[in-house]
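Example 3.
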Amino acid sequence: MTLSVAVAGASGYAGGELLRILSGHPDFEVRTVTAFQNAGQPLIAQQPHLRSFADLTLVETTAANLAGHDVVFLALPHGKSGELTAQLDPGALVVDCGADHRLTSETDWAAFYGGDYFGAWAYGVPELPVAGGGHQRERLAGATRIAAPGCNASAVSLAIAPGIVASLVEEQDIVSVLAVGPSGAGKSLKTMYLASEILGSANPYAVGGSHRHIPEIQQSLRLAGASDPTVSFTPVLVPMSRGILATVTARLKPGVTADEVREAWENAYHGEPFVQVLPDGQMPRTADVLGANTALIGLAVDAAVGRVIAVLALDNLVKGTAGAAVQSANIALGLTETTGLNVNGVAP
Amino acid sequence: MTLSVAVAGASGYAGGELLRILSGHPDFEVRTVTAFQNAGQPLIAQQPHLRSFADLTLVETTAANLAGHDVVFLALPHGKSGELTAQLDPGALVVDCGADHRLTSETDWAAFYGGDYFGAWAYGVPELPVAGGGHQRERLAGATRIAAPGCNASAVSLAIAPGIVASLVEEQDIVSVLAVGPSGAGKSLKTMYLASEILGSANPYAVGGSHRHIPEIQQSLRLAGASDPTVSFTPVLVPMSRGILATVTARLKPGVTADEVREAWENAYHGEPFVQVLPDGQMPRTADVLGANTALIGLAVDAAVGRVIAVLALDNLVKGTAGAAVQSANIALGLTETTGLNVNGVAP
Amino acid sequence: MTLSVAVAGASGYAGGELLRILSGHPDFEVRTVTAFQNAGQPLIAQQPHLRSFADLTLVETTAANLAGHDVVFLALPHGKSGELTAQLDPGALVVDCGADHRLTSETDWAAFYGGDYFGAWAYGVPELPVAGGGHQRERLAGATRIAAPGCNASAVSLAIAPGIVASLVEEQDIVSVLAVGPSGAGKSLKTMYLASEILGSANPYAVGGSHRHIPEIQQSLRLAGASDPTVSFTPVLVPMSRGILATVTARLKPGVTADEVREAWENAYHGEPFVQVLPDGQMPRTADVLGANTALIGLAVDAAVGRVIAVLALDNLVKGTAGAAVQSANIALGLTETTGLNVNGVAP
Amino acid sequence: MTLSVAVAGASGYAGGELLRILSGHPDFEVRTVTAFQNAGQPLIAQQPHLRSFADLTLVETTAANLAGHDVVFLALPHGKSGELTAQLDPGALVVDCGADHRLTSETDWAAFYGGDYFGAWAYGVPELPVAGGGHQRERLAGATRIAAPGCNASAVSLAIAPGIVASLVEEQDIVSVLAVGPSGAGKSLKTMYLASEILGSANPYAVGGSHRHIPEIQQSLRLAGASDPTVSFTPVLVPMSRGILATVTARLKPGVTADEVREAWENAYHGEPFVQVLPDGQMPRTADVLGANTALIGLAVDAAVGRVIAVLALDNLVKGTAGAAVQSANIALGLTETTGLNVNGVAP
């Protein structure tokens, strides 16, 4: 049975990646693509790499245009989906790639985003372990409204949650530094995202600030058993279009050994096709997961400082956004979780 | 029916790309992967992006190890396949991604390569038009020994052959300049391919020389109807891992109009899924075909100089090498030509 | 004697580069820096790399603010300097890095730019040979109004003019393809200049069109002795912030030898510190001239097509713009031409 | 008075950068350049960007060839200078850019490097504050044997030492993550440094290991007042040829305020031309210091985790290596410390 699909925000980077992935999904057929400014144009004028959708034309992003589909993916700027989603068909599966429905705490919403709070939807990084056993994927089964996780939050949470759920690391003073590509910012026309500013340079931004990704990370770590986790989050823009390389460190609890660490991480992701812990001594590179729905984790214990260093690579547009959204939709609809998702990266 | 496949040279870039494509091919099953120095290692140690092949181990590149498969892909350095192939099972389909069997002229071989000449195999860029109608793909049907085309020759030939076959352009004084990524050179350890040499720089090489790609281009242009074509070929290494952006210009014959040019190119590739002519005013970017088996052509007539400018983008490792090899194998075996091949690029 | 200097458009890339060069010029002292939107900010807020100017504040770009200086450099968007310059002190040396005063033909201006024509100023790529002997630098001595050449026009003209002045090449059907970095476009906020669009890709633009650089190239080639030169010009954006690598080819006149070619080019630039012809077999890389006021030329004769291939590398912001402007000012003021200008690139 | 200079290892990246800087130094004249494999070649064949040294020829790296100069700079692979230096003229100033003479602890040498220990020379990052007042520069005055600091150690030490010397941060559990360009590895021909491996990817290496830079950092932090500092050090290769962006975090001692932090850092580097603390809210980019002898520091207090985050940008080849060596030589010889050194970066 083929399900009809609409993608809102189809002229952006996340929307384009959703379409690229959906083009290989056997159960979904994209019928409608919408945009704000570019409505009326052929999709391919905005996304010239999506040759298989040469017959689609962008229509305006309205509830009417999104109606009548089995599945609706929203790839809209933050703050744009909240209002729209209230008008969508209750029976359709709606997956929002934006942040509007991620946070369960209205206080966090007010503190980190502000503006109207539209309430939390089913949220889950499928592979994330939760306290007491199981994974976040269980929260997605049968859902009709899903808030897909943010790319940075997924990266940091996946890297460190195994240590939380196994009680091996301190939940406070988690320190993360992320090398990130500019595509995560979408097509926003700001000087800081111009090629001339990014090429040949490493550019940190919003350091020490109250990043919007932090409450989302904390939310997942609490599900993993933490009560009051604290996370330092420093993103550095580097000259690659895609990719997140998150270096996440946490203090080990007294007496924890490197073997216990490795065992905990391997247990947490045992059998997971899309989240893999590399053998001792190996570290992941973002190129290894480019275009793939895969997160790779390299693990080291730094005995001198008493910390575990978990380095995680993912493609912000795939496992970080569009792949995660499709994976979540698969789970919600009861399809095989891996359907239409690729595990192999495009390298070099 | 699943065909068993061996890939020789599986630790290199071309070999890795063959495997990435084959992982999505429903009719092929990779049973054997071989290497020279890295034999004995898990494939994934050399190709950490190929997660779906985690169970394969590299064995030595010998005729014995390659025996017993329905299809053998060779991704070996130039000069390495000639000897080996003589020992392979005559009944197997062998597709050589190297240059050893491409040239039909032993004189050209001696002039541009030198060393032992191993004879030409069935060669074809499937979509290339040939004089008198038809395409090079007809040369591949039923073949058991195929020399897959070189990436640079494919780019230049596909860009300009429609003008030759339609007798719209002069066959002499074709001028091509190519922006190319370094992955085309494989993993060769030369200073010129170090990241520090390539990053932030545009580096021409072997300018004005007798490039090995030229006789291969001439061979295809002769099939398209030229008798003595001459081609200037200037490659410029630029800081992108993959991709060829070929700017190919040829003098228009007297009186040829822009409309005739467009019509000739569109006719030549009408209905081709993998070679597409963009609408007037659009130009292709290599990012649009990254990871895809697609070549995109932008077309302009420069009236001031009386030339057509055909700009072609392809991914050197896919449409330029591994995708071309799989496409050829599909044709040779009578499978649907597009099986296992992706038309959508990974962008941005 | 120290001359007082104002730089208009100091918050842009060309303005910043002027300041970087002027910071090392012993005869100039920058007193005033102006901008449009960013007036009122410390210069260093817009140009954080210019640490030596930490005490300068941007003031508005007005004739009043530019008055009272010995030398005024204008680094404004095209079309912005024409009106302003009418109001500047006639006794000051004004060097315009924009296009407004480059073209001597009002017809060309109307055809390629349009809008009000403000008349031509003294224009010269100092090293360009002119018919009958001498160089364009002679046109700059003593001038008080100078139109600095455009970066692309300088690259193509310098590459091929020696063949014109020596009557070795045909003046028609000159074919040029340029790999260019995005900094030449300044800080314009267009999607095509976003890092995500440029990284990992080669992007041609405006192919076959009537590039604004063409009449400027023709103007210089006519000075070199051509009567009706025609030039095809194809720019390709590549992922490096700076640099132009121009591959320029021209048909050789019958009987011209490679030795004659080399001699002509070496004669044309004999003794020039900033324009150097590389030995046979060597080709320039843009990294070799990054940050330097140097243009390097590699030379080859492609006998098969009967063309000379001249490959020229320069830094679009230095030899292409700001260095050229300072060099011209040195000449106009009777200073040593090389003062404050660096011949060594920053590589790797 | 002009001092005669020899540069050993002049065909490598560090050697080339020494020469680029020395070309603008008014008191030094480079007379001799040496190499291992490339001896006999013109310097410019190996360093085509150094146009001003067109008349120099590489000679073999021997004590005899290095004799008779006032100043000798060594830019040799680690382990190569120890033996050589024993034979150099005791009266000459020798500045070693390698690691052989940096560590004062033979135990550390044995643990982190191994092989013969050649003893420590005068070592100093000039601006680093030392306990009890003053800076490391005092250790360099009048020295005749100087071990120039390593680039990574300089970056981390400069970022965090102000907190140590002012007793504001804990000396243990310092966590640093560095985005680094590949030029720091020199021209070593390893697969991991190929452009195809680096382009479009972020590649961590040697994570959690006992980096050779760590004892050098500890040595400087002890001079700043720490007794047993511990540092976690994670380097990530990113696609820029030069630059280090070090994110260094340390736990604040109880009660320390953001104002105290800012004051301590600003005091530590007050009046320093080459190490500057940016205003609140600003962060440095590596492009801002490209080609400059400048280190820029951005500062933030992350109250949630109780850490200071100091982000430091420097050019690994200039302030990290060759600029540091020249600055040290200036100090040792009693020249003005800033002579020949540039504070402005080449951006964009």
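Chain A has ten helices and 14 strands. Chain A has a mean pLDDT of 96.
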